[in-house]
Amino acid sequence: MKRAIVLFSGGQDSTTCLVHALNQYNEIHCITFNYNQRHSTEINIARNLALKLGVYIHTVLEIPLLNELAVSSLTRPNISVPTEKIDTIPNTFVPGRNIIFLTIAAIYAYQVQANIVISGICETDFSGYPDCRNEFVQALNRAVIIGIGQNIHFKTPLMWLNKAEIWALADYYHKLELINQETMTCYNGIKGVGCGNCQSCYLRSHGLNNYLTNRTLVRTNMKEKIGL
Fold this sequence. Notes:
By secondary structure, the chain is α/β, with parallel strands linked by helices. It is built from 9 helices and 5 strands. The protein has helices at 12-22, 41-52, 64-69, 97-112, 134-148, 163-172, 176-182, 199-213, 215-226, and strands at residues 3-7, 27-34, 58-62, 116-118, 153-155. Helix 6 (163-172) packs across helix 8 (199-213), helix 6 crosses helix 9 and helix 8 (199-213) packs across helix 9. The two termini are 22 Å apart.
């Protein structure tokens, strides 16, 4: 039995990871976190997508402490989401979020006897978050293996893909339209194409346009990077 845990927010990247994982593992457990985030609608979106994709082991874990500790425009409705890319870490960064998510997912994996935790963390096209770097994921994974006493491995299949290549991966599994219409990546909480103004929407739409314009080349590059 090949069993894996997927960190699932209902966004473009985590949904693409889920689609990819469904073709690699016999049993998938999805974990979604409720940390009183600015747009709690993402939890219902994740629930609906999991059912549409045939995942019936889907757990929503409550971690309100993260909201209390981490001040961000994604945890505080009175902080405006930036509309332009800036050179410093943007206020959409939720400090400690991926540390907590991956650690809790490893504990969950331990309990259900899974040794794979899959996350949509990506270093290629990202907003400058320090916890979206491969260096961070590998360091935390080493610490978790030592601390939990089992070889639970963090897998980040999108780590070296740009947004165009992530769209290509979705299309490879014939899920491009589903992900384009049903996921929520927008920092302003709008499903599908989003608000069109935030950095997340820019990366998403720019990547899709690049893929649709250079479909063959982008798909070839994606396959080489991900090993398809």
